[in-house]
Amino acid sequence: MSDPRQRDDSEDEDDFNPAPEVGSDVEDQADGNDDDDDQDDSPRRENKRQSPARSPAGDDHDGEDDEGEGEGEDVNGNAHDEDDDEEEEDEEEDEDEEIQGHRRKRRRDQRNAFIDIEAEVDDEEEGEDDDEDAEEAEGFIDREEVGEADLVGREDDTRHRELDRRRDAEETFDAEKQAEIYQKRYGARRPARGMGDSGVVPQRLLLPSVDDPSIWGVRCKEGKEREVVFSIMKRVDERMGTKDELGITAAFERGGPNSVMKGLIYVEAQRQNDVLSALDGMLNVYPRTKLLLVDIKEMPDLLRVQKTPTLEPGSWVRLKRPPKHAGDLAQVLDITQSGLEARVRFIPRLDYGMRDDPLAAMTPDGKRKRPLVGPRPPQKLFSEVEARKKNPRAISGNPTSNTWIYNGDEFENGFQVKDIKIQLLTVKDVNPSLEEVTKFASGGEDGVENIDLKSLAASLKDSSASVTYLPGDVIEVYDGEQRGVVGRATNVQGDIVTLDVTEGDLAGQTIEVPTKGLRKRFRPGDHVKVIGGSRYRDEVGMVVKISEDRVTLLTDQSTTEITVFSKDLREASDIGGQGSLGQYEMLDLIQLDPTTVACIVKIDRESMVVLDQNGDTRQVMPSQIANKLPRRKLAVAADRNGSEIRLDDVVKEYGGMGRQGKIVHIHRTWVFCHTNTTNENAGIFVSKVSNVSTISAKGGRSQHSSGPDLTKMNPALSMGPKGGAGMAPPPKPIIGRDRLVGQTVTIRKGGYKGLLGRVKETSDTHARVELHTKSKVVNVLKGDLIVKDAITGRELKNYDSRRPPGMGAPGRPGEGRTVPDWNGGSRTPMASSMSNRTPAWKTPSGAGNGGRTPAWSKGGGDFGGRTPAWAGADGSRTVNPYDGSRTAYGGSGSRTPAWNSGSKTPAPDSFSHGSKTPAYGGSGASDPWSSGSKTPYGAAAPTPGASGGGDTWGYTPGASGSSGAYDAPTPGALLGAPTPGAMNAPTPGAYNAPTPGAMNAPTPGAGWQGGWGAADAPTPAGGAPTPAASGSFAYAVNAPTPGAWSAETPAASGPRYEDD
Amino acid sequence: MFFVYTLERRVTLHPSFFGKNMHELVTRKLLDDVEGTCTGSYYIITIMDSFLISEGKILPGSGLAEFTVEYKAVIWRPFKGETIDAVVASANQHGFFAEAGPLRIFVSGHLIPSEVKWDPNATPPEWTDGDDTHIKAGTHVRTKIIGTRADIGELWAIGSIKEDYLG
């Protein structure tokens, strides 16, 4: 009985031999096997008479076992006499079941190894203890017997054997008894030795049968059950070996405060008489009352072990009594040796004599101190000061250790400490709330640790009620027959979970298991959510470690690790999870008091941790928060460099820790920033605005705030300065490349006078000219330059590199006039002539630019060559006289031939082009455009060259000044670019309608004029007749095609066309 | 693991972009919008140049045109059990954070070999086994991903170096 296992047995009272219940573990079986070798083994031993018959199977088994053991020894001890002896003896015993004293002999053996032989005598005197430890000690030492015996010497052993035999002879047990003893002895040892064959014996066979001794229940005094059993034991001991040995095989009790079997002891014996005689004259037991014979079926139930709730220091319980504290939470400090009482601490409910005293005076026994009527005093930690004030005499204690005794109650550190019977504690389903636990924590110095998971868990562990399984959960069976089975829950009904087994041999099968032996199973990396129980409720995280049923996870929210029970977890598909408590969410800015704001960095079930503006963290309850400050999106502050910082900007601390983070809040002069580099406070830190500098502002915040990014809007617009320039009012054209650059010029004055050169670059006043004669670049005043036509060498008068287009117009006519060549002039006639012939023709030609375009595209080499130049110049420059002039001279130079061809034949040709493409009609119609006409023309006519034409028109400034101008408003570009035909197709009317409007609208008349002027320039006719105002001027250009744009055009084109 | 994956996306275009090279703009916008983003389970690393741009459809009300674009992209998806190399970004007593491209990996102390201990006294504090293993910011580590989680716009992973050939 000294062996712990043995003691367990006695506690569990399951010394009933066939008892092992289904589901009990190996140990239980073993206990079942060694039937009567418990507390009453000594009586049993002494009782030679009765010995019920054991099942033969069991005997055989024992025998074999014995044999095995002997062999084992043999192997160990190889050829020692003694071993032989041993074996011999074993065999002997096996064969001759009459040999009874084996146990005793063994014990003697073992003892003899140390003590002397005479010790056997004190068998009778051995106390309970001796008896108790006898068997186990023996069993234990037995194993080492060989070695010890070896050491001690053989003589001893042989003498022992003799003694044994003598004894055996004396003690005439019947065979059954003998068998039982074996069974008991070796049955007990087998599992202990890890033979592992215990499982071979089906449990059913171990159940009691009619051949086994019966069990009688005997009434006894309540609460004295154990005492009675001890007395029986003693009696058994006393009478052992005498003639009136007790005939019972076992006695046990299932008492206990909550047991239904209290007031009864159970005695196992073959006959009722044995029971009566065993209990005869014993105190507190009433064998004369009716004995209850326990039904065979009920025997196993009698021994069913109920796990007594185990209390561990640190776990939480609730008090049932005293009534003043009923329901109060208490913490177990210690368990008394007996295991019956626990030392707990709880928060006292004292009123320091406010009511106690008068009542105490009334009833000196103090029983009525706590009248149940009226409210009980609130829970409050014990205060020495208060106590002294109210009742100085009642207090005594030690101030240094802060332990006091007040009115007979003990107080430590403000808590009341008391030994309370365990049955007066509620151990299950304690579910301490955080608030209660915090009270404890606040009192204890190491409080924080105490409220930690461990103790909480211990008490929560019992509250199995909260375990819920849902279909889909992956579940592992950890207890019972199905242990180790893993499956997915498919159905849950009450306590039964239907599992679809996914692993192991049973895979694919469906089994039903009670929830009791189940736990949820997770794997590292699973994404789980804490669903209940612990204070981490609603945290979501990823599993990093699993040990037993404890799962460590890394929370998403704060990237910290927490450990919870697997039963409190669920697999979570959602992200985020917790992060709000009531109206407060993670990272919210809250107002604690008028001067303090804080940012929530952690949210628990009932409280939250905030980081205030001073960088301190504190735990607050929602009730402590004055209000929540809305996140002001537009909050702006200036950093230490004076740069503007806003939410979401990345800033870096200046000095200090140099932390860098994204601003989550700006409040007055503080910024709360979030960083990923640390987990502390969820990565939030606070800093003064003046102590951070911006690293990167959130890119392009303006666009984020105001719709689409206008700067990127139209790529065409941003393609080149031309777009804007073309469309732009006078001041604009100044911007951009000086048109002078690249021009061929002669120098009018100075040392280089008369030399021809090319302008390399210009400033406002000067131009750097690369001389053709000397390879030298000289600086010349712009005014001293005469611009020459690069090819013809003619002088271009009034060339103004930067004159606004509007100004150009007036100049041009002169130009046109003075330089007939410029053809404007030359062309004009042609155009006119053409126009004579075909108005359509005239228009394009008149259009100059427009005319040119097609011409070029058609024109091939020469033109091609020029085109780029053209494009370049034009494009970059925007519309203006120069354009015109250039065109002109481009035209004059190159075009002339083109024109020639054009004029002679190409006109029709081009026309035919046009005519082929219905666009041409359009182009015809577009004549009125003059320059407009160009475009369609250009596009249409060179259809093959459409790309060139189209592009020029659409995107590249190249087409012409006017086209540029045209481009600006885009629609033209769009329409023109893809399909000139399309442009035309809409019919001029349609075309005109939008364009002119667009053009006119954005570009003040002047601009327009210029644009058109360019077109006009070539056609002095156009220019001359209409030196008019802007809008009209443009139209005047079109004058050849009389009338206004819109309405007329179609009409105009129509007839013209017809003319053709 | 890297994959070439055919994806589809709807791109909307502001009316001011309507024009000849609209398709170019659409692709440009697509690139801007999509490249380098995380879609929940994978990162789109780059877009390859095969596009199939549908006809644009004007969205009533806004005037924006919507195009459905099919494109091929190189994507990167971290898998459970995949082993990847990463660079430690920061270390603390619970473990360390490492970055593998856009992916942040946390390696918990439980998933670090037991002989590698947290040494808060080192400068900077590091995980070390007292020998030649030092894990601190900047260290290259080889980790095995044991779990991933998608956040908005990013992925998270938990890694382990507690196996052979990891660390």
UniProtKB/TrEMBL annotation, chain A:
<keyword id="KW-0507">mRNA processing</keyword>
<feature type="compositionally biased region" description="Acidic residues">
    <location>
        <begin position="81"/>
        <end position="98"/>
    </location>
</feature>
<comment type="similarity">
    <text>Belongs to the SPT5 family.</text>
</comment>
<dbReference type="Pfam" id="PF23042">
    <property type="entry name" value="KOW1_SPT5"/>
</dbReference>
<dbReference type="Pfam" id="PF23037">
    <property type="entry name" value="KOWx_SPT5"/>
</dbReference>
<feature type="compositionally biased region" description="Low complexity">
    <location>
        <begin position="935"/>
        <end position="945"/>
    </location>
</feature>
<dbReference type="InterPro" id="IPR036735">
    <property type="entry name" value="NGN_dom_sf"/>
</dbReference>
<feature type="domain" description="Spt5 C-terminal">
    <location>
        <begin position="850"/>
        <end position="1027"/>
    </location>
</feature>
<feature type="domain" description="KOW">
    <location>
        <begin position="468"/>
        <end position="495"/>
    </location>
</feature>
<dbReference type="GO" id="GO:0032044">
    <property type="term" value="C:DSIF complex"/>
</dbReference>
<feature type="region of interest" description="Disordered">
    <location>
        <begin position="1"/>
        <end position="174"/>
    </location>
</feature>
<feature type="domain" description="NusG-like N-terminal">
    <location>
        <begin position="212"/>
        <end position="306"/>
    </location>
</feature>
<dbReference type="Pfam" id="PF03439">
    <property type="entry name" value="Spt5-NGN"/>
</dbReference>
<dbReference type="InterPro" id="IPR041977">
    <property type="entry name" value="KOW_Spt5_4"/>
</dbReference>
<dbReference type="GO" id="GO:0006357">
    <property type="term" value="P:regulation of transcription by RNA polymerase II"/>
</dbReference>
<dbReference type="InterPro" id="IPR057936">
    <property type="entry name" value="KOWx_Spt5"/>
</dbReference>
<dbReference type="InterPro" id="IPR041978">
    <property type="entry name" value="KOW_Spt5_5"/>
</dbReference>
<feature type="compositionally biased region" description="Basic and acidic residues">
    <location>
        <begin position="140"/>
        <end position="174"/>
    </location>
</feature>
<keyword id="KW-0804">Transcription</keyword>
<feature type="compositionally biased region" description="Polar residues">
    <location>
        <begin position="894"/>
        <end position="904"/>
    </location>
</feature>
<feature type="compositionally biased region" description="Acidic residues">
    <location>
        <begin position="117"/>
        <end position="139"/>
    </location>
</feature>
<dbReference type="InterPro" id="IPR006645">
    <property type="entry name" value="NGN-like_dom"/>
</dbReference>
UniProtKB/TrEMBL annotation, chain B:
<dbReference type="InterPro" id="IPR003029">
    <property type="entry name" value="S1_domain"/>
</dbReference>
<keyword id="KW-0804">Transcription</keyword>
<keyword id="KW-0240">DNA-directed RNA polymerase</keyword>
<feature type="domain" description="S1 motif">
    <location>
        <begin position="78"/>
        <end position="153"/>
    </location>
</feature>
<dbReference type="GO" id="GO:0003697">
    <property type="term" value="F:single-stranded DNA binding"/>
</dbReference>
<comment type="function">
    <text>DNA-dependent RNA polymerase which catalyzes the transcription of DNA into RNA using the four ribonucleoside triphosphates as substrates.</text>
</comment>
<dbReference type="GO" id="GO:0045948">
    <property type="term" value="P:positive regulation of translational initiation"/>
</dbReference>
<comment type="similarity">
    <text>Belongs to the eukaryotic RPB7/RPC8 RNA polymerase subunit family.</text>
</comment>
<keyword id="KW-0539">Nucleus</keyword>
<dbReference type="Pfam" id="PF00575">
    <property type="entry name" value="S1"/>
</dbReference>
<feature type="domain" description="RNA polymerase Rpb7-like N-terminal">
    <location>
        <begin position="8"/>
        <end position="63"/>
    </location>
</feature>
<dbReference type="Pfam" id="PF03876">
    <property type="entry name" value="SHS2_Rpb7-N"/>
</dbReference>
<protein>
    <recommendedName>
        <fullName>DNA-directed RNA polymerase subunit</fullName>
    </recommendedName>
</protein>
<dbReference type="GO" id="GO:0060213">
    <property type="term" value="P:positive regulation of nuclear-transcribed mRNA poly(A) tail shortening"/>
</dbReference>
<dbReference type="GO" id="GO:0006367">
    <property type="term" value="P:transcription initiation at RNA polymerase II promoter"/>
</dbReference>
<dbReference type="InterPro" id="IPR045113">
    <property type="entry name" value="Rpb7-like"/>
</dbReference>
<dbReference type="InterPro" id="IPR036898">
    <property type="entry name" value="RNA_pol_Rpb7-like_N_sf"/>
</dbReference>
<dbReference type="GO" id="GO:0005665">
    <property type="term" value="C:RNA polymerase II, core complex"/>
</dbReference>
<dbReference type="GO" id="GO:0003727">
    <property type="term" value="F:single-stranded RNA binding"/>
</dbReference>
<dbReference type="InterPro" id="IPR005576">
    <property type="entry name" value="Rpb7-like_N"/>
</dbReference>
<dbReference type="GO" id="GO:0000932">
    <property type="term" value="C:P-body"/>
</dbReference>
<dbReference type="GO" id="GO:0031369">
    <property type="term" value="F:translation initiation factor binding"/>
</dbReference>
